[in-house]
Specification:
single chain; Mth169, Chain: A; three-stranded antiparallel sheet
């Protein structure tokens, strides 16, 4: 019975990745520090570096559209500061 539950729960699980980055017109001091450090280490061919956040989210949902809508809601309510950040949702297979 426990094995059957594990199989069923795997079928109902979807995995997403969410990448959050600062909007283009927002200054990125952390990215600038990383870029300057790499230049000081001898890597001189960098144009720019911007930092961000990455989330991997497993959700117990079998409907892709419903799951993606829930992930979007999570982003809008907590994971992303919509004033200064953009985000991209991808399904992980």
């Amino acid at each position: 019975m426990a094995k059957q539950f594990q199989l069923n729960s795997k079928k109902n699980k979807l995995k997403f990745s969410v990448t959050v980055t600062l909007k283009e017109d927002v200054l990125d001091p952390q990215g600038k520090v990383v870029q300057n450090t790499l230049v000081n280490m001898g890597i001189n061919n960098l144009k720019s570096i911007r930092q961000g956040k990455h989330f991997e989210i497993d959700i117990n949902e079998k409907e892709l559209t419903v799951a993606k809508k829930k992930i979007d809601e999570m982003c809008r309510k907590l994971l992303v500061n919509l004033i200064i950040e953009d985000y991209k949702i991808n399904i992980i297979k």
